[in-house]
Amino acid sequence: MNIEKRVKELVEEKIADKPNLFIVDIKMHPNGKLIILLDGDNGIGIDECVQVSRHVGFHLEEENVIETAYNLEVSSPGIDFPLSSPRQYAKNVGRNLGIKMKDGAKREGTLTGLTEDTIIIEEKVKEKGKKAQVIESVIPMEQITETKVLISFK
Length: 154
What we know:
Blueprint: H1 3-15, E1 21-28, E2 33-40, H2 46-63, E3 71-75, H3 86-91, E4 96-101, E5 106-114, E6 118-125, E7 133-140, E8 144-149
Parallel strand pairs: 2-3
Antiparallel strand pairs: 1-2, 4-5, 4-8, 5-6, 6-7
Helix pairs in contact: 1-2
Pfam families: DUF150_C, RimP_N
Domain Ribosome maturation factor RimP N-terminal: 14-80
InterPro entries: Ribosome_maturation_RimP, RimP_C, RimP_C_sf, RimP_N, RimP_N_sf
């Protein structure tokens, strides 16, 4: 059985009664580290992570899904973890994003909205000899390779 698939089933089972929570990523690393990243529309607390960890850990042991020693880590994605789902984009409306495009270009702007397959940002565009203008850009998700929230300490 695929470990990541079984873990996903177990996590979905545990968070089924919490519709504001969602899975960001599940990864079984070759070094025996199983990482489950969860998030919520309003964030996620340590208590929810602990509950998921206990549920998943108990069932993995009972079913003997992983035959070697492993380390289970359940947490929320860090601020430096790229956005990957529409729900993560939605919870970050109003924040500044750094976006890497498939063509190699890098863009930066404030996320103002999104649709099913695009994001909408306000970005400053400066042409030589002119004052910078703020324009609204619609970017298809399929053209994005990575998006990260930019943190400003100003």
